[in-house]
Write a structure and sequence with these properties.
GO terms for molecular function: sulfotransferase activity. One of its GO terms (cellular component) is Golgi membrane. Belongs to the sulfotransferase 2 family. The chain has one domain. Helix content is 45%, strand content 7%. The protein has 10 helices and 4 strands, in the order H-E-E-H-H-E-H-H-H-E-H-H-H-H. A 4-stranded mixed beta sheet has the order 1-2-3-4. A hairpin with a 5-residue loop joins strand 1 and strand 2.
Length: 253
């Protein structure tokens, strides 16, 4: 659908490349995922009924930013919601993929998996006693082992849904501004709601804060792990990185 717009050529090319890459990578895992009954049952999609624009919620990837935008486009949603009530309200309005019409334009935003992991730790646990990064990562890895998702080449359950759900748009948090401007071109109704560098709409979610994070923060946290643990962690996220075109070793090997 992207090729029918009047957007900047580079933006269109990047988006088409992402979709093509994702579809090609998904083909490698489809049979194995189906054989292991790993079809995800918990991903919810929020569809704006007037435009058909449909957002798949991924925590720690500008979800507050997009929920804030969608809340302004939905009739009957209170205008002033704190983040907790914003998320719960938007999740209540969301649907399973089987409930979506064929015309739904399904988009997702992703970020580097290791950076997302570190960001989640910093937000939830950095100031909590006895919740040190190394111990938290080891506990996370134990859960992954129990679920049978390490060292087998199978993707994590969280990122298998593109194998079953055809996505129309893949945004990256690292290019959030450019991707948001592309979506405005695709859906002009967004112009009144989406803040970008060229679209002067007030942003109350500070969505660019994560883009200002020093890469050294992720690298420094990863360096706290011993080599074997670090290697195993990167293996867990290797398929996530491949699906969405990230270098798993960007922050160290």
């Amino acid at each position: 659908r992207v090729q029918n717009t009047h957007i900047k050529p580079n933006s269109a090319v990047v988006q088409l490349q992402r979709i093509k890459h994702l579809n090609q990578e998904c083909l490698q895992y489809k049979d194995e995922i189906q054989a292991h009954d790993m079809r995800p049952k918990y991903h919810l999609f929020l569809m704006e009924p007037q435009t058909g624009l449909t957002y798949c919620h991924v925590p720690k990837v500008a979800s507050s930013f997009w929920y804030s935008i969608f809340s302004k486009m939905f009739h009957g949603v209170p205008k002033k919601l704190d983040l907790t009530n914003l998320h719960s309200t938007m999740l209540d309005l969301s649907k399973g993929v089987e409930e979506l019409p064929e015309s739904a334009f399904k988009m997702i935003f992703v970020r580097h998996p290791i950076k997302r992991l570190v960001s989640a730790y910093v937000e939830k646990f950095v100031d909590v006693p006895d919740k040190h990064f190394v111990a938290s990562v080891q506990k996370f890895m134990q859960k992954q082992k129990a679920a049978g998702t390490t060292n087998s080449g199978r993707p994590n359950k969280e990122i298998t849904f593109p194998i079953f759900v055809k996505l129309d748009f893949v945004g990256h948090l690292e290019t959030l501004n450019d991707d948001a401007e592309l979506l405005i071109e695709l859906f002009p109704a967004l112009k009144d709601f989406v803040p970008t560098k060229t679209n002067r709409v007030k942003d109350k979610t500070e969505h660019n804060a994560s883009l200002r994070d020093d890469k050294d923060r992720t690298r420094n946290y990863l360096a706290q792990l011993d080599p074997d643990t670090r290697k195993e962690l990167l293996q867990i996220f290797s398929v996530d990185c491949r699906l969405f075109g990230y270098d798993c070793y960007e922050f160290g090997s």
